[in-house]
Amino acid sequence: MSPIKIFHFMPDKLNLYGDIGNIIALKQRAKWRDIEVEVVNITDTDGLSLDDCDIFFIGGGSDREQSLATEQLRKIKTQLKEAIEDGMPTLTICGGYQFLGSEYVTPDGTRLEGLNILDIYSESKKERLIGDIVIESETFGQIVGFENHGGRTYHEYPTLGKVVSGFGNNEDDKKEGIHYKNLLGTYLHGPILPKNHEMTDYLLRKACERKNIPFTPEKLNNSVEEAAKQAIIKRLLNDKK
Ligand code: GLN
């Protein structure tokens, strides 16, 4: 059986607030199920094919790194769009989430053109949205993370969840992230996957289904992860009172 290939896009530039932990979580939860995983670090997209990519991951970055990364992504834009439409499991964090849209306007009004893969719009303000966050997701239940972004994102797609505490996509509509086909886009660092095993397993399960690899056991013992998550939720919700 060929391994699950995780394409990690520009790990040298896009790794804010421990986003690399998402790769570690995917690898570890695959290992617990005896599923072989190979991580392919993508630093240059010239000649890159997404044909054998099973999970695509983009972390967050500062505005500068984000614009450098967009140039690399632009070269595979059509492939990436087709793969997302085809259901490739994808996780994009913060800056990685923003540049799937039409544009990102910086606080000084500079317009960074996005990839236009999705109908998403982001603009940034000087006042950043920072702190721990709890959201309620129909698919995953409660999700926790940490956010730190100037960008405010607007779209009409299904979201990752509803904000219970924190900001999410912007400070107005209480929506967080996007869940489009098997793409999960979010403002949550933390990193998000070690804190939210349901999302890690979702990406792995989808990748296995697409490759006809058994995803067993379906459930692992998540008591440690759950206890850690509930402690964060309790603290945040108590802090709000
Ligand atoms: N530069 C973007 C913003 O501040 C993304 C930051 C991030 O990835 N955390 O909105």
What is the average per-residue confidence, as pLDDT, rounded to a whole number? Answer: 95
Assign the CATH architecture: 3-Layer(aba) Sandwich
Biggest sheet descriptor: 6 strands, mixed
**Roughly how many Å apart are the termini?**
52 Å
Query: What is the radius of gyration?
Result: 17 Å
Compute the number of helices. Answer: 7
> What string, H for helix and E for strand, traces the elements in order?
EHEEHHEHEEEEEEEEHHH
Structural class: alpha/beta
- Total number of distinct structural domains: 1
Q: Which of globular, elongated, flat, extended, rod-shaped describes the shape? A: globular
Q: Which percent band covers the strand fraction?
A: 25-35%
- Would you give the CATH topology? Rossmann fold
CATH top level? Alpha Beta
Relevant CATH superfamily: Class I glutamine amidotransferase (GATase) domain
User: Which percent range fits the helix content?
Assistant: 25-40%
E-strand count? 12
Subunit structure: Forms a heterodimer with MurT.
Protein name: Lipid II isoglutaminyl synthase (glutamine-hydrolyzing) subunit GatD
Active site: 94, 189
Domain CobB/CobQ-like glutamine amidotransferase: 5-196
Please give a structural write-up:
This protein has 241 residues and is of the alpha/beta class. It is 30% helix and 29% strand. It contains seven helices and twelve strands. A six-stranded mixed β-sheet has the order 2-1-3-4-12-11. It is globular, with a radius of gyration of 17 Å. The structure holds glutamine. The site of glutamine has 13 residues, from helix 2 and strand 8.
